[in-house]
Design brief:
Layout: H1 3-22, E1 27-30, H2 72-81, E2 86-90, E3 100-105, E4 122-125, E5 131-136, E6 145-146, E7 153-156, E8 161-163, E9 177-178, E10 185-186, H3 189-195, H4 205-212, H5 219-225, H6 233-246, H7 252-268, H8 274-287, H9 292-305
Parallel strand pairs: 5-10
Antiparallel strand pairs: 1-2, 2-8, 3-5, 3-7, 4-5, 4-9, 6-7
Helix pairs in contact: 1-2, 5-7, 6-7, 6-8, 7-8, 7-9, 8-9
């Protein structure tokens, strides 16, 4: 890209960031692949002396959505340092998040807009021919996960984020665009009840899809089909990530593969979205000095072994 078009894009990204900040939305940058940027070399890895708390680390773009900010100077520095990045907003309750719950509809995975469930609100036409519907956060913790009862639809709230216009999708090269400029509405009662449904009370769409196709897969598939048999998903995910970071050289990729299988089980049980699982595993893999190529292969293989084939493909 020549200097003039690049400058126009950078100006557009910064203007969009300013608009978001005026709404009180903390924003940050993703890499060109829509994954969080790697921590800078000066940021100690988790478990090492002086390791930073992700929520208080002062480095510009470290720790993914924890770098989200409303500080205009920091945002300008982010965009200047990573001009090919994608602008993103941290979802979830304010002030850490934007005070929104976003319904992410992905037609490529069967997602459809349900007008009876998803009433009109502020919306984005995504670069992948889908939709982001922005609703006011209900004030109670909302899991980022597949929307119970829906195929190809995710909830982005606590621990989640979405790409903002005018970012360009890395695969389709289409820009994200605002579909309307109306206000952010409250979720209708039925949608509120759905996003607040405890994971154990409903089999998530990704699991039902496996059952409908007659694929029970491994024992993890049986556990996932139960909708809530992983009693302590946070502990399981934490143990998987810790194992990757502690793995000795020569065992790191195979350990990441095993960790990906464990995280896939948590995703299939409805406690985590594929995107969030990939982000956590990628962060752990980078902490263990693995290349992004090896990380991608290990996660893809681990997910596939558990019957979860859309983890990395999901935008």
């Amino acid at each position: 890209m020549s200097a003039a078009p690049r400058r126009v894009l950078l100006d557009a990204l910064f203007a969009a960031a300013v608009d978001a900040v005026e709404l009180g939305w903390p924003v940050f940058l993703l890499g060109r692949s829509k994954r969080p940027l790697a921590n800078c070399p000066e940021c100690p890895k988790r478990g090492e002396p002086g390791a930073h708390d992700p929520q208080t680390c002062g480095h510009l773009t470290c720790h993914g959505f924890y770098a989200a900010t409303c500080d205009g100077d920091r945002i300008e520095a982010m965009i200047t340092a990573h001009p090919d990045g994608l602008l993103a907003v941290r979802a979830g309750a304010a002030p850490a998040g934007a005070g929104v719950v976003v319904i992410d509809i992905d037609p490529g995975h069967g997602g459809r807009h349900d007008p009876g469930l998803m009433t009109p609100t502020l919306a984005v036409a995504t670069g992948n021919h889908g939709w982001h519907l922005y609703y006011r956060h209900p004030g109670r913790p909302v899991l980022s996960r597949p929307l119970p009862g829906a195929v190809g639809v995710d909830v982005k709230a606590e621990g989640g984020y979405v790409v903002l216009p005018p970012s360009v999708h890395p695969v389709t090269r289409r820009r994200y665009e605002w579909a309307n400029r109306r206000g952010i509405e409250e979720m209708p009662p039925l949608l509120t009840a759905t996003v607040l449904t405890p994971p154990a009370a409903a089999v998530p769409a990704v699991t039902r899809r496996r059952v409908a196709h007659g694929s029970t897969g491994s024992s993890a598939g049986t556990a996932a089909a139960g909708g809530g048999r992983i009693r302590h998903p946070d502990n399981l995910v934490g143990a998987c990530l810790a194992a990757v970071r502690a793995a000795p050289e020569g065992r790191r990729r195979v350990t990441l593969y095993g960790a990906a299988r464990g995280v896939a089980r948590v995703i299939l049980a409805g406690h985590l979205t594929p995107d969030t699982g990939v982000d956590l595993l990628t962060d752990a893999g980078r902490d263990a000095d693995q290349t992004d190529r090896d990380i991608h292969a290990a996660i893809t293989g681990g997910f596939a072994a558990e019957g979860l084939t859309e983890g990395l493909a999901h935008p």
